[in-house]
Amino acid sequence: MDTLALLLQGFEVALTPTNLMWALVGSILGTAIGILPGIGPALTIALLLPVTVSVGPVSAFIMFAGVLYGAMYGGSTTSILINTPGEAGSMMTALEGNKMARSGRGAAALATAAIGSFVAGTIATLLLTFAAPVVAELAFLLKPADYFALTILAFTSVAVVMGASRVRGFVSLFIGLALGVIGIDAMTGQPRMTFGSAALLDGVELTVVLVSLFAIGEILYVASRYSGSKDEIVAIKGKAFMTREDWRRSWKPWLRGTAIGFPIGTIPGGGSEIPTMLSYTLEKKLSRHKDEFGKGAIEGVAGPEAANNASAAGVLVPLLTLGLPTSATAAILLAAFQNYGLQPGPFLFTSNPELVWGLIASLYIGNAMLLVLNLPLVGIWVKLLQIPRPQLYAGILVFAVMGIWGVSGSVFDLGLMAALGVLGYVMRVYGFPIPPLLIGLILVPLTENQLRTALAAGQGKVSVLFETPISVTFLLISFLFLFMPVLLKRLKKAA
């Protein structure tokens, strides 16, 4: 069926009163958690997983999409007003946005961030609309060896790109792989790494791991570094909207940011940090107002914010078409699919078209909702920054524990949550990245299954893994991810 016809069907699903309500709830929640420092979309979706089990999958994912996009919008507010990014993708916005706010141009900074997010989000969703079906069709051509090579690429790229060092990235990845193989082996029926505990025969519950690492670990980290000092909030001054000059200087960075953010969001390890940094660097080089950078250049807000939102849509392309998460939030969304007994991939487009197209259509609707929520109501959102940190994180802790207990009713899971929470805290303190652990945990069943299937088809010959051009290409890229940084470093020293 034609893509436009499928999209129209998606709008029929997304525009029902129930799904519109969930889109609004997700947009409001996303904006709120984006504004509150230290609470990102990954943590929020992880906390919502236990309480959305009774909600239909279409409504749940429409709400999750609102949370994802809303966090991108809301993160710019704290970056601009208190120089503290609400989420990682807003780091570059803080460089120029806070300077604009301090010089009395906070309203213009907030406006270019919100409108840039809307423009980039809409264009990126259009690209997602037409790219996803094409990638899904191509995915039918992939053989088990190709899927295995693709997961190896995901493992190596996130381990190398994310974190302070490759060693820490791979340690995190291997912890995730170890957690992922706990339980009964699907092919042999034998228990693995259960240590005689019947509670581990079904494996480690994904929701427990996600809530532990993101909620409990983050709470322990914040508590250990809590000083009691209050952030200074810069008052919103200046004209309520952008001037003609602001528009002239912003529209090209919006488009360039979108062009950078969307493709980088689709690759493993791309995330939102890399495209925003690239966008900021590019705008600094191209701007006619280089002297303003570091003092409050509007291009330094417009470009990174557009790249940030475009990368969020880019993340959904490999997730929906291949079942491949390229960021921590995508990994949690994949876990949410699995909670509903769904496996993202090419078959999802034929088995659950109302879910896929309803989700894509809701992105257009959510974008429009977020523009209305953010531009005129920014004064209300800023008041969230007045919530005391102890009360805020205590509420998150109670919500997390109640969610896990409500889903499993298991004392063992609560104990496991506490232990993994301490692990998350230690990883945060010593700079071990969380995303490789999550991606290792979630993808290891797929990797193992595809490896065994490929070897069975090749009668145990390892050469079967290198027989197709696609698998060789993926493995070669993985090899480059591993060794290229080392080679470049040695060449630089030799020169």
UniProtKB/TrEMBL annotation:
Keywords: Membrane, Transmembrane, Transmembrane helix. The keyword Iron-sulfur does not apply. InterPro entries: DUF112_TM (IPR002823). Residues 20-438 form the DUF112 domain. This is Tripartite tricarboxylate transporter TctA. It comes from Pollutimonas nitritireducens. The chain crosses the membrane at residues 20-39, 46-71, 107-135, 147-164, 171-188, 200-223, 315-337, 357-382, 394-427, 470-488. Signal peptide: none annotated.
